[in-house]
Amino acid sequence: MARSAHPRNVGSHGIRTHMTLPMSEEFSGTRIAASARSTRRKPHFRVLRRLVSSPKGAIGLGIVAVMVFIALFGPFIAPLDPYKQDFMATLKGPSAAHWFGTDQLGRDVFSRILHGAHTSLGIGIGGVAVAFLFGVPLGLAAAWFRGWFDQLVMRAVDIMLSFPDIVFALALVALLGPSTMNVIIAVGTVSIPVFIRTARAVALSTLAEPFVEGSVALGCSPLRVMARHVLPNMAGILVTLSSLLFASTLLTASGLSFLGLGTQPPEPEWGTMLGESRSYIRSHPYMATFPGLFLAISALGFNLLGEELRNIYDPTAAKTRRAHWFGGLAKAARRKPVAAPTAIPDMPQDVLVVGRDLEVSYLTASGALPAVRGVNFTLRRGRMLAVVGESGSGKSTLLRAVGTILPRGQALISDGTLAIGGEDVSTMTPERLQQMRRKHIGVVFQDASSALNPVMTVGAQLIEAILSGNPMPKAQARSRAAELLAAVQIADPQERLDQYPHQFSGGMKQRIVIAIALAQNPDILLADEPTSALDVTIQQQILVLLRRMQQESRMAMMLVTHDLGLVSRYADDVAVIYGGRIVETGTVEEVFRNPSHPYTRALRAAAPRLHAPGEGKRLSAITGDPPMLGQFPPGCSFAPRCGRTHGRPLCQTQTPEPRPVGGKLVACHFAEEV
Ligand SMILES: Nc1ncnc2c1ncn2[C@@H]1O[C@H](COP(=O)(O)OP(=O)(O)OP(=O)(O)O)[C@@H](O)[C@H]1O
């Protein structure tokens, strides 16, 4: 039965198991000498240098600089009074006396353009600022809170977008009255939905990234997650959007001025000037050409500038200028073990995580569907439990439940009990959960590339992980970050701290992810297919590293993997999961030496083994497909694919419960029939 989701998506449910192991409130991490140099800052003129070194950036910056200069100093450099009428010189074409000609009242068009720059660009910038300041926070809030708030915001956005910009802006100005300020409010309001949609879409995808989940797992607050990960990741797109909107805002504002609702004559403004030139467009085209040209050039300049800024702020798009680093592993010999965590005095017991009849469900259109169904397991200090099974069997869902990082609003613990350090997570407040994640749980995700924030240096990400649970001076945190990099065998750690993830190889990125997971000296380490994106030799190195650290620090570890070879080499215990249930569990030796469940046997037979008896034989595949979410057959879920069932009704009707068979727990009615 599904229950309402906890704000942090840990289900609240009625079942309570009395646990007596209180989790320590405080965890004193390794003390580090504050001898490191301070965090180096990137010089701000780096951006300027990059801008001027590219043709697009240089042109864009040049145009914007000229326009800003004109907006600021136009009145001082204008040769004539922009308001002065000369009825003897009306509608004169460009000449030495009037470079851009004169208008219907004999006013100097050039001087009016110089004076009008201030108002025109001011309206554009003001409109974008209004849209940005309201749209971005609303979009971020909608992505974070989801639910009814998201629905409300998005319906309002849909309604606003269903009107053409100019019509909506017209209605607003008609309501507020014609004035420059009201035009800014109107054109800004019209653009708010675009910012909301963009910010929400980017935030949603960024929040689903493993590196953000990692931050949530580290216990970072929503504001911090938004400020550190989501906003920097959308900086490029927001800058580009702002520049594009600047152009459209200028045009919409000009349209309003053209209709007489914007800046009022005799005030010079490019849109108003275009409006005034309407009647003379055929006979005296220069009247429209010059203000139009200034509008178009301004829009072009902001666009070019925005595009180049996007390239700069997205380092993954930028070409790596420096040579790649090659001599890594040779220098990495200076290995430095991570210090063992300080003992938690009031948590001496070995059992750190207990799952009892644990059920985890996804909230789908068809209701809450269980992906993990009544599993029992224990994570013990100093031991590694491997969770194996086919794709879709529920391994990652189980790991995320243990890490209290189930996707918000999508999954929840719907039944049973999960206790971490003796505390039932369903009774924990969001703050307690956050503290738990921050101090006691480290998570290593599958794909290191997406587990690291591409726009933050490795050092910044490590320092964030270190500081999230343990305030300390930045210099000390940097020193600790370098120590962690050295511990995961990355050479020249001080220099590497200032580099971005794309400057590291896949294996090194995964080492960094491991370093981040270990930043708080966690008691529990969760690794979800930590090596499946790596080649075989690197897989071995990473697993050796993980195993060494797990043993040195006596962490309880859960390893999710498809690779039975890795399990037999590195894990202590194994849980074989099928259709969301643990079908066989015990020590690796017991389970693999003499597998009892037909599914375990089939998995073993399907796993490639070098130098195994019968080498050269074809691998046997498991016939049929694993059950889909919500489509589990009655009785034993494996029965439709099982060679041992022989059509026996018991398998089709009664779900086998795990029972002791030869030192293991096996969920099969006929486990003894090996
Ligand atoms: N966000 C989600 N919404 C709905 N169903 C989901 C969601 N995530 C996973 N599932 C479903 O839950 C089931 C278990 O998925 P899970 O990712 O835990 O399996 P897995 O064993 O880890 O698979 P893999 O090895 O491919 O990662 C699958 O049927 C999957 O389709």
TrEMBL record:
* Subcellular location, principal: membrane
Record-annotated ABC transmembrane type-1 domain positions? 117-306
Q: Name one Pfam family in it.
A: BPD_transp_1
User: What GO terms are given for molecular function?
Assistant: ATP binding; ATP hydrolysis activity
Membrane-crossing ranges are 58-78, 121-145, 166-196, 235-263, 283-305
Topological category with respect to the lipid bilayer: Peripheral membrane protein; Multi-pass membrane protein
Record's subcellular location: Cell inner membrane; Cell membrane
Domain ABC transporter positions: 355-604
What's a single GO CC term here? plasma membrane
SUPFAM superfamilies in alphabetical order: MetI-like, P-loop containing nucleoside triphosphate hydrolases
Sorted UniProt keywords: ATP-binding, Cell inner membrane, Cell membrane, Membrane, Nucleotide-binding, Translocase, Transmembrane, Transmembrane helix, Transport
Q: Which top-level group of life is the source organism from?
A: Bacteria
- UniProt cross-references to CDD domains, sorted A to Z: ABC_NikE_OppD_transporters, TM_PBP2
Q: Name one GO biological process term.
A: peptide transport
Provide the family line.
Belongs to the ABC transporter superfamily. Belongs to the binding-protein-dependent transport system permease family.
What is the name attached to this protein's record?
Answer: Dipeptide/oligopeptide/nickel ABC transporter permease/ATP-binding protein
What is the organism of origin for this protein? Paenirhodobacter populi
